[in-house]
Amino acid sequence: MMLLLAFAIGVIAGLRSMTAPAVMAWGAHAGRLALCGTPLALLSSAAARYSLTGFAIAELVMDKLPTTPSRTRPGPFVWRLLTGALSGAAITSGAGDGLGAGAVAGALGALLGALGGNKARTGLVRALKVPDYVVAVAEDVVAVGGACLIVSA
User: Fold this and answer.
1) Alpha-carbon gap, residue 56 to 32, rounded angstroms
2) Rg of the chain over all Cα atoms, to the nearest angstrom
3) Distance (Å, rounded) from C-alpha 129 to C-alpha 110?
């Protein structure tokens, strides 16, 4: 079950790279993830929580700008894999299952989330004949809501 949740939070990181670790930090703060005494204990700190939340909000805004590079470009793509791995590792580590398998599951989820999310977003914009930001806002809701559901599971 934890590997499935790690994969799922990776998918969220593939959609919005900073949402997944920000929600992990809030989950650790709320006691949903037991990260104390693990290599990821820093995620439960106030500094991590507020910094990651600020980055997540900035990403939600910047995603709507026409100059923002595609999530499938090398830099953003690798970043999504890394934040997916971090978030997946937080899920499994918080459950006492270690980091490795969760990191792999999270990275694989981020791969699917980035590629599938890009395909879905461009396809929906074309099919619905709406501006990109309309679908992007819906994607934001899925990412934030999904991350919250995963942490509460």
Assistant:
1) 20
2) 15
3) 27
Contact (CB, 8 A) for 83 and 101: no
The sign one gets for the Cα dihedral 115, 11, 60, 83 is negative
Helix then strand count (H, E) for the chain reads 6, 0
Total residue count of the chain as it appears in this document:
153
Asked if 103 and 21 touch (Cβ cutoff 8 Å), the reply is: no
CB 113 within 8 A of CB 14: yes
Angle at 47 between CA 46 and CA 51, to 5 degrees: 115
Per-residue pLDDT of 22-48, as tens digits, reads: 999 999 999 998 898 889 999 999 999
Indicate the domain borders of the chain.
Answer: 2-152
In angstroms, the CA 58 to CA 41 distance is 24
pTM, full prediction: 0.93
Phi and psi at residue 132, to the nearest 5°: -55, -40
- Is there a contact between 124 and 139 (Cβ–Cβ < 8 Å)? no
